[in-house]
DNA sequence: CGGTTCATTGATTCGCGTCAATGCAGGTGG
DNA sequence: CCACCTGCATTGACGCGAATCAATGAACCG
């Protein structure tokens, strides 16, 4: 299928090392992911249908329109989701990080493409089998509905951003989103990590790389942010960013 | 609560007319709504927590930020959902019609405002009690997840539209969305019904009323659509619209 | 050290927004 | 029945914010 995913069935791994501990036990993102709602015995059932996939940076997890054969949890690395127009215009619809779930919209085909932004490790579930399991693990289904709800809320915020905000407001909003995520993941807040290129940011915000770059420079000159290094943004005046982001 | 909703508890109605048939029995949208997945006895349980709400055109169902006390099914009429920026800029995030579900994102507070675009009748469920029922009606939860998935897919399409499409492409896409919905609802396809104002369309597409109007005129002059009357659009060359919408 | 990729900056263009006027249908009351 | 109002749609003139086109700079890498 997706030719650049290297796959390790967990079952295989287990048989190789016999009575090994559940691979879920030392999963770094178990508590942050959808798996957190499951008890040990339920987790074992879910693990039974999962395999681990590896991708290099830039690798394609799947393409828009492909039959949706797997859903995944991001274990390590980050992913960008995007849609394309025939002439190449691109809209990035989201970025995923460890613990995030890929494919909540349980459709027959993927509605967007997904590409690794760094070395990536994901925990993959065959869609059909996961859907079957949902009948027996209502807590998991409940959790997925919760995740879907969050995604809908985020999507509506993004529509407001794309439809009505200025370039400056978009960039300010974006930096605050990043900060919020870093907070949730208990990562360094200042400077905040910016693991994507200017082009990716532009395609996420409905702007060009040039406009993103100019807006960063402008915010820096205003003393609101600092740009200490590639892929880092220092948030100097969070209140100012909040005001700009909300259009106040 | 929401002061302009007139409410009729179904239980009250029942006691008034004793052994009356279930009000769900003659619900025009039962088969089109989330209720369609429930059997008779399950439907009765859901009915047990529902009330009917009435609003006049222009009435507010709820405001963004209000505690989310009810979820609803639209029975009759139509609704627009929108978010506001403090200075009044508005983004319409969706339009709802009979059979559509209002509030899939089961959050503590509403993430957007909802306003009746015509005389409106909705079937309302207290959120807490519905969430409780979900544990006992897994089919309903499954269906909600499905609905949420559809909403996510639609939201992503809208992000592509808002972030990357030109005014002409946005309007063409919008007309095709309307046509698709009319098709699903087995309504008249040509001319297709346009129950919202130019301002609402503009706020949905991230444009001004003037640009929407000019673009309609332009498409009319190109012989692609006709504008026979207020609130009607005749789709003359669907293929041309499809091409424009996809940016081809 | 040369090549590649990405970010920044500048000059110019252009699509859509803004501002303003006019048209048009429906409703209301004399 | 008509004069008037009100809200919405259309059309035109003009300006601006972001895109486009182009060049340079900075980091990384074999």
Known CATH architecture of the largest domain in chain A: Sandwich
Oligomer: homodimer
Strand order of the largest sheet of chain A: 1-2-9-4-7
Largest interface, with Cβ-Cβ < 8 Å? A-B, 44 and 44 residues
Integer-rounded radius of gyration of chain A = 19 Å
Q: Determine the N-to-C terminus distance of chain A.
A: 49 Å
Characterize the biggest β-sheet of chain A: 5 strands, antiparallel
Give the strand tally of chain A: 12
Percentage beta strand of chain A: 15-25%
CATH topology of the largest domain in chain A: Jelly Rolls
Mean pLDDT of chain A: 92
Give, in order, the helices and strands of chain A.
EHHEEEEEEEEHHHEHHEEH
Shape of chain A: globular
Polypeptide structure, described:
Two copies of one chain form a homodimer. Chain A is of the alpha+beta class and 248 residues long. Chain A folds into two domains: 6-150, Sandwich (Jelly Rolls); 165-245, Winged helix-like DNA-binding domain superfamily/Winged helix DNA-binding domain (Arc Repressor Mutant, subunit A), CATH 1.10.10. Helix content of chain A is 40%, strand content 21%. Chain A has eight helices and twelve strands. Chain A has helices spanning 10-16, 40-48, 127-134, 138-164, 167-184, 198-205, 209-221, 238-245, and strands spanning 6-9, 51-55, 60-62, 70-76, 79-84, 90-96, 101-102, 113-116, 120-126, 192-193, 225-226, 232-235. Chain A binds chain B through residues 83, 85-87, 89-91, 93, 104-107, 111-112, 134-135, 138, 141-142, 144-146, 148-153, 155-160, 162-165, 203, 205-206, 246-248, and chain B through 83, 85-87, 89-91, 93, 104-107, 111-112, 134-135, 138, 141-142, 144-146, 148-153, 155-160, 162-165, 203, 205-206, 246-248.
């Amino acid at each position: 299928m997706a030719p650049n995913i290297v796959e390790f069935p967990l079952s295989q791994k287990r048989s190789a090392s016999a009575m090994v501990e559940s691979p879920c036990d030392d999963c770094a993102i178990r508590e942050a992911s959808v798996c957190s709602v499951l008890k040990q015995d339920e987790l074992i059932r879910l693990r039974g249908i999962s395999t681990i996939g590896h991708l290099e940076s830039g690798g394609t997890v799947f393409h828009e329109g492909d039959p949706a054969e797997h859903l995944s949890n991001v274990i390590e690395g980050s992913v960008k989701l995007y849609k394309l127009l025939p002439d190449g215009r691109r809209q990035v619809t989201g970025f995923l990080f460890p613990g995030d779930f890929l494919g909540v919209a349980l459709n027959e085909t993927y509605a967007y493409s997904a590409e690794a932004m760094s070395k990536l490790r994901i925990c993959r579930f065959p869609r059909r089998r996961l859907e079957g399991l949902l009948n027996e693990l209502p807590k998991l289904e409940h959790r997925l509905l919760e995740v879907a709800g969050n995604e809908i809320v985020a999507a509506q915020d993004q529509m407001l951003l794309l439809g009505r905000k200025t370039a400056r407001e978009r960039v300010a909003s974006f930096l605050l989103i990043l900060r919020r995520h870093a907070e949730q993941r208990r990562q360094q807040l200042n400077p905040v990590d910016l693991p994507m290129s200017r082009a990716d940011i532009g395609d996420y915000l409905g702007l060009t790389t040039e406009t993103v770059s100019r807006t960063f420079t402008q915010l820096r000159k205003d003393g609101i942010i600092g740009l200490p290094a590639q892929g880092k943004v220092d948030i100097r005046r969070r209140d100012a960013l909040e005001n700009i982001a909300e259009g106040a």
